Amino acid sequence: MASFVAGIAVVVTGFLGRDSHFERLKGIIAGMVPDGDAEAVEGATAVVFLGSLTMLVLVVAMETVLLAVLFKRRIWARWALAPLVLLHAVVTVITADFVVAPGADGVLTIVLLAAQFILAAAGLILLFLPPTTKWLLSERVA
Q1: How confident is the model at residue 18 (pLDDT cuts 50, 70, 90)?
Q2: Rounded to an integer, what distance in angstroms lies between the CA atom of residue 23 and that of residue 96?
Q3: Residues 110, 104: Cα–Cα separation, whole Å
Q4: Which residues contact 22 (CB under 8 A, 6 or more apart)?
Q5: Considering the chain, what is the average pLDDT of its residues?
Q6: Which residues make Cβ contacts (< 8 Å) with residue 73, sequence separation at least 6?
Q7: What are the distances in angstroms from CA 135 to CA 125, 138, 140?
Q8: Which of 2, 43, 97, 106 sits between 20 and 30 A of 114, alpha carbons compared?
């Protein structure tokens, strides 16, 4: 749940500061394609920025769905979460590249992204501890 809240906070802060992010990304994309027209650069900037936020939202939503399944004591859901947390790490790095403002302006976003991934990874580790396994299997034994 805390990972979900941190993820939403990253998306909200990123979206609210989108104008500064758009300008920075426009400069980067325009540098990559120096003779591209302004409309194409604008479109590519929107796709990169909004796409990275969308990836983050999708990964967090998938983790949330799997956690809901897990709370119904379906032991397979923790195995599905393991590769999803690895995907979460990749998406976090990609999102950090495109959504985090350089310098002191991006410190809050970096902290939120790091907290989000750390909470997801810690939660995954806790899912594989013996007491959790015992709890997951307790309904089947009773």
Answers
A1: low
A2: 16
A3: 10
A4: 45, 46, 49
A5: 80
A6: 135, 136, 137, 138, 139, 140
A7: 15, 5, 10
A8: 43
Q: Which residue has the tokens 């970096």?
A: 110
**Residue 64: alpha-carbon gap to chain centroid:** 12
DSSP track, the chain: -HHHHHHHHHHHHHHHTHHHHHHHHHHHHHHHSTT--HHHHHHHHHHHHHHHHHHHHHHHHHHHHHHHHHTTT-THHHHHHHHHHHHHHHHHHHHHHHHSPSGGGGHHHHHHHHHHHHHHHHHHHHHTSHHHHHHHHHHHH-
Residue type at 39? E
- The tokens 């501890």 sit on which residue? 129
Tell me, what amino acid is at 105? D
Q: Give residue-wise pLDDT tens across range 75-110.
A: 899 999 999 999 999 998 888 887 777 777 778 878
The answer to whether 17 and 107 have CB atoms below 8 angstroms apart is no
C-alpha distance across the termini of the chain, in Å: 28
Residue with tokens 């120096």: 34
> How far is residue 133's CA from residue 140's CA, in Å, rounded to a whole number?
12
